[in-house]
Each structure stands twice: as C-alpha cells, then as structure tokens.
Amino acid sequence: MKLATDKMIAQKEGAIGWITFNNPDRHNAVSLSMWQGLYDAVTAFAADSGVRTIVLRGAGEEAFVSGADISEFEENRSTEDAVHAYDEVAHRATDGLANVNKPTIAMIRGYCLGGGLAVALSCDLRIAGVGASFAVPAAKLGLGYAFEGVRRLVDVVGPSFAREIFYTARQFSADEAAAMGLVNRLVPAEQLELYVRDYAATIANNAPLTVASIKTLISQMLKDESGRDHQLCRDVVARCFASQDYREGRRAFMEKRKPKFTGR
Predict the structure, then answer these.
(1) Are 134 and 113 in contact (CB under 8 A)?
(2) The whole model's pTM is what?
(3) 157 lies in the same domain as 236
(4) Burial bucket for residue 84 (CB in 10 Å: 0-12, 13-18, 19+)
(5) pLDDT of 122-147, one tens digit each?
(6) How far apart are CA 40 and CA 9, in angstroms?
(7) CA-to-CA distance for 48 and 190, rounded, in angstroms?
(8) How many domains does the chain have?
C-alpha cells in the first residue's frame, strides 16, 4: 500500500496488516505527515475484508515510537491555532486506531514514549520485548495532555499508576510496565516478532464477527452509562448468532475439525 509519506509503511501479509513507523534515525519520532499516514493506513486496512488483525511496529531495533517529532513544534505547534490544527490530525489518527473495527496489537521494542505510548494505548493489545521503556514526558515539556489520552491510560493502568506516570515523567522499565498492566505480554526481545506474528495469526483465525463484537462491547462498557449504545450492543451479538460463521463453528466442532471463518 502506498502512503503519502515514506516515513510510514503499510503492508498486508495474509490476514495481518502491518503498519510500520519508519523513521529510525529519529527513533521513529512521529511527524505531522506520519500522523496523517497512520490514519490513512488504518482506514485502508479497516476497509479491507482480507485483513483481520492490525499490528503496529517501529522500524529498527531502538524504538517503537519515541514520541512526537519535537523539532516540528516550533513551526507546527507554536501558536494556539497551530496547536489545535496539529492536535486534530494526531487525535484523528489515534481515535481512528482506537475505534477501528478490527483487533490491533502494538509490537513494542525499545522506546515507547509520549505520542508513542498514546499510539500503543490506542491499540487493543500491547506486547513488548524485554528492554522496552515507557514514559509520558509531558511534565518535562510543559505541554497539556488531552482528556481522551489521559482516560485511555487510566482505563489501562488505573488512576494511581496514571498519576505516577504523568507526575514523574520518568521512564519505566518493561518489567514495571508489565507489573502495572501497561503491557499484556512481555517476551524476550529476540522472540518478539515471532511471538506477535503467532498471536496475530491466532486472533485472525478466530471468528471475525465475534472478535469485533467483543471490541464493540468493551468499548461501550468503558463509556459513561449515559453514553452507552445498548441497541448497538444487542445488534452485534445478534449478528454473530445469525452468521454463517456461527453455523460453520458448530459444524466444525461436531466434525472435529478447524473452522474456516469468512466473516459473514
């Protein structure tokens, strides 16, 4: 898939869509054009019925994403209007990732800082290699952090750890991240890609409608009661029971074979 910037790469391998932050000389720091590239890649994979799982990773061995490209801030985030315009693009990318209709995995090697952690938190799962490090350095830069970004961190690690991460602005080790629930799995760095490939394939082989329904239901659960769409919750469950995949799952079970799900 061709994107508008070569600093982002989107590739489809079987049922897995890979999105790579391709700026290794700057530890994959995300520029404004890369935020747009992330949105474009996620949107394209969302529309591709052949893609069942989306994996995000950073190029090279040093970083997943080391944050936003601060060298652009003087030009792109130095006035109130510029900050608003920049944040609109970045938020659209992370919101698109958080709400995409397919399961997402952040494959984290090395630095996962600031905007990189925002990207990882917008994914459904975070799998990290030993040696990864995590931080939100906002308090060292004097910048504000949007409500939704803070909420995503609180939803994952709880308010106490979220306060510690923001208040100290320090880097946390992979072990510390695992202990606070910031990452789902911590594996040896040399095994990270193989582990993630296997995990993504496991998810891709399951019934897409069931997986998508769970993503929808959990998303609704995390909203305030007044904002939940209960009819949508009922509809996604009913769609599973009315699907060809449900019939295929029953038959495969009775015939003692692996099911072949089509997402219909």
Answers:
(1) yes
(2) 0.93
(3) no
(4) exposed
(5) 999 999 999 999 999 999 988 888 89
(6) 11
(7) 31
(8) 2
